[in-house]
């Protein structure tokens, strides 16, 4: 459904056509806005659009959003990395990255954004229509180009870091590539590829990505990823991993590589049930209490031996979560009259999760350290919701690599801008407000 939205700025009133539509990928309603012009006669729907001259060239451009992106990026080492890595394609890469940040959508719409934005003055005469974009993505998706980019880029974000956060997500799609396979995604079974993402531990800077067939389990990814990062000169001493990466093979190899780690123990493991039995009955003691984000948790440390390795287990109880999960379980069991001798054992694990580490960590610090991995999940959300990495519409492997690389660069710029803004402003709101700053173009 389309409607006209009016905005009063100064002495003029401006008209915009707003088209509402349902985004089936993001499962939410969205809007596409088209500028119509200055209102001449609102009742008759007559508008004057001074943006274009007689040759169709736009004379009034969106300015503020890409101006602050461009000025901030030029102060960052990432700007020179892009210039050096992509050579004659650098302007196209920058323009497409700015587009993903300011007007996320299909790459086929990038040229329309380019025509109406200040970036056509910063990067004049770019050919970024749909077919040309496919050629660009294929070129930058070549293995040697990507290797050159990451060789240069990683140097700029690892000087002060020695820890990694590794996580993965599924990217659903219907593209024709051997990497697109049936897998579980958010409680559904869909065709997808697996997108593995690595960030620095302290500040959450995007560091590296890999894509793999959607059917490959997470436990097989860690050691290969660490080997690739080692090739790029990453000398990490700590890895923060989600439960999906837990396996005897992974923790053994991490231990052999003398790489410290912290990961969540899956509840299906025998050692999990053993620790619940031993620790849960006595965990709610005052000396085990700690505070995280204004919530009281109980944390108990216990040394364990797993596959001949001496490791540290941290049993963590969240009382609020325990109350919720206990209430739900008992309500269901009472309703169906299913309470038996096993119920008390089932109640012991409610509200509890267990972390495993090769290092001894203060019980007050282990939970804040583990939840640093939320930074990766936040970046996944940004990539999917704000940069519109989905849906994937790419049909060759090299083009897919190029497309994911553009999104990785856009995400890196996003983090750069967000860091510059601090906590006072949200980046999405900032870009939206700054877009209201226009510029006029003159012949001279």
Give the key terms.
444 residues, alpha+beta, 16 strands, globular
Specify the structural class: alpha+beta
Task: Choose one word for the global shape.
Answer: globular
Query: Could you list the spans in which at least 5 consecutive residues all have pLDDT below 50?
Result: none
Number of strands: 16
**First-residue to last-residue Cα separation:** 42 Å
Description:
By secondary structure, this protein is an alpha+beta fold. About 40% of the residues lie in helices and about 25% in strands. The chain has helices at about 65-75, 75-85, 90-100, 110-115, 120, 130-140, 145-155, 220-230, 250-255, 270-280, 320-335, 345-350, 365-370, 375-385, 395-420, 425-435, and strands spanning about 1-10, 10-25, 30-40, 45-50, 60, 165-170, 180-185, 190-200, 205-215, 240, 260-265, 290, 295-305, 310-315, 350-355, 440. Strands 6, 7, 8, 9, 10, 11, 12, 13, 14 and 15 form a ten-stranded mixed sheet that branches. A four-stranded antiparallel sheet has the order 1-2-3-4, with no helix packed on it. Strands 5-16 form a two-stranded antiparallel ribbon. A hairpin with a 2-residue loop joins strand 7 (about 180-185) and strand 8. Helix 2 (about 75-85) packs antiparallel against helix 7 (about 145-155). The model has no long low-confidence stretch (mean pLDDT about 80).
């Amino acid at each position: 459904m389309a409607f006209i939205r009016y905005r009063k700025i100064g002495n003029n009133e401006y008209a915009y056509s707003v088209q509402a539509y349902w985004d089936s990928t993001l499962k939410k309603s969205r809007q596409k806005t088209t500028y119509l012009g200055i209102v001449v006669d609102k009742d008759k729907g007559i508008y004057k659009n001074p943006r274009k001259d007689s040759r169709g060239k736009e004379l009034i451009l969106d300015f503020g959003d890409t101006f602050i992106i461009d000025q901030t990026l030029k102060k960052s080492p990432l700007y020179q990395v892009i210039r050096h890595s992509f050579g004659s394609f650098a302007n196209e890469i920058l323009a497409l990255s700015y587009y993903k940040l300011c007007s996320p959508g299909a790459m086929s719409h990038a040229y329309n954004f380019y025509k109406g934005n200040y970036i056509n003055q910063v990067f004049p005469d770019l050919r970024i229509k749909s077919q040309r974009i496919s050629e660009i993505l294929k070129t930058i998706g070549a293995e040697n180009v990507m290797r050159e980019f990451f060789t240069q880029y990683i140097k700029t974000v690892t000087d002060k870091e020695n820890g990694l956060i590794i996580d993965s997500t599924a990217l659903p799609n219907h593209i024709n590539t051997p990497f697109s396979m049936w897998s579980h995604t958010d409680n559904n079974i869909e065709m997808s590829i697996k997108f593995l993402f690595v960030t620095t531990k302290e500040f959450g800077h995007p560091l590296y990505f890999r894509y793999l067939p959607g059917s490959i389990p997470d436990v097989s990814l860690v050691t290969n990823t660490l080997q690739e990062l080692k090739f790029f000169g990453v000398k990490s001493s700590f890895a923060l991993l989600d439960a999906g990466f837990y396996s005897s093979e992974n923790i053994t190899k991490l231990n052999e590589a003398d790489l410290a780690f912290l990961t969540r123990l899956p509840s299906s493991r025998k050692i999990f049930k053993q620790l619940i039995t031993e620790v849960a009955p006595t965990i709610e003691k005052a000396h085990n209490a700690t505070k995280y984000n204004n919530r009281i948790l109980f944390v108990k440390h216990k040394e364990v031996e797993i596959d001949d390795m001496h490791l540290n287990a941290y049993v963590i109880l969240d009382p609020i979560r325990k109350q919720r999960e206990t209430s739900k379980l008992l309500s269901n069991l009472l309703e169906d009259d299913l309470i038996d001798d096993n119920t008390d054992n089932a109640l012991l694990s409610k509200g509890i999760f267990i972390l495993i580490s090769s290092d001894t960590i203060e019980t007050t610090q282990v939970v804040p350290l583990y939840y640093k991995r939320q930074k990766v999940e936040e970046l996944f959300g940004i990539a999917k919701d704000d940069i519109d990495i989905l849906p994937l519409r790419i049909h060759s492997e090299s083009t897919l690599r190029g497309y994911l690389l553009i999104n990785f660069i856009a995400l890196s710029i996003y983090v750069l801008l967000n860091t510059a803004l601090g906590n006072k402003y949200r980046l999405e709101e900032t870009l939206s407000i700054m877009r209201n700053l226009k510029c006029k173009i003159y012949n001279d």
